[in-house]
Amino acid sequence: MPIWAQAGLWGLLGASSLVIGAVLAYVVRLPQRVTAGIMAFGCGVLISAVAYDLLEDGFQEGGIWPVIGGAVAGSAAYTLADWAVSRHGAGQRKRSGQQQRNASEGGGLAIAIGSLLDGIPESVVLGVGLLGGQGVSMAMLAAIFLSNFPEGLSSAVGMRKAGRSKVYVIGLWIAIAVLSALASLGGAALLGHSSPQLLAAVNAVAAGALLTMIANTMIPEAVEGEHQGTGLFVVVGLLIAFALSNLGSV
Predict the structure, then answer these.
(1) What is the per-residue pLDDT across 107-166, written as a single tens digit (0 to 9) for each?
(2) Which letter does DSSP use for residue 137 in this model?
(3) What is the DSSP letter of 84?
């Protein structure tokens, strides 16, 4: 199977937990503290993956400057795009409380665009990761899967409280999962013969975008719902992801 096709399938698998989380939001009514705790855990998992599987590996392959330049560019690009979609009602897209009620009539589309914006960087990372010839990074895949689950859950809870239908919410997350798979496929197809420096820069762009997304949208939800336990859940998630990425060296 071509690498780009493999990348698409891995990307779909990583994004599938968005749909699982959204479905769970309708099957089980979880307390906000539980949802926030899961979100905090996902933050820790993703922070670990960004630091050790993207930035550190990128530094080893391409040096410091592609990493710094890419991370700053990714953060700036995400900040501008997030600001643009937030102006149209997507600023609270990951919140599980009543915040999404304040979205305008066009807020549903803005939330969809904003959620896709959050998912693209991690999907591209999976596709680019296959280009090294060593297969998909299980640690990165686990981090994306585990962090996507609370995103889908929390956002779907908020959409439900905002009055959006089950068909709309589940359909939205299925569409985002498919588009995320296409982003992973595209990353592998377009960067197949790139230099280590360029691949390091691309991974760093994704890392910068992901860290900014965590700070802008995931941590606020976690802190609001689980004040005292947020830090602990973040640390536990980070350590579990760190252990997963180092299983082969212990």
Answers:
(1) 455 666 777 787 788 888 888 878 766 677 777 788 788 778 877 887 787 777 777 788
(2) -
(3) H
Q: Contact 158/94 with Cβ under 8 angstroms? A: yes
DSSP-based helix, strand, coil % in the chain, nearest 5? 85, 0, 15
Query: What's the pTM value of the predicted model, to 2 decimals?
Result: 0.80
Helix axes 64-85, 196-213, angle to 10 degrees: 40
Q: Give the model's confidence band at 32: pLDDT under 50 very low, under 70 low, under 90 confident, else very high.
A: confident
Gap between the Cα atoms of 235 and 244, Å rounded = 14
- CA 6/CA 181 separation, integer angstroms: 10
The DSSP code sequence of 138-165 is HHHHHHHHHHHHHHHHHHHHHHHHTT--
First to last CA, the chain: 32
User: What are the residues whose beta carbons fall under 8 Å from the beta carbon of 100, sequence distance 6 or more?
Assistant: 92, 93, 107, 111, 158, 159, 161, 162
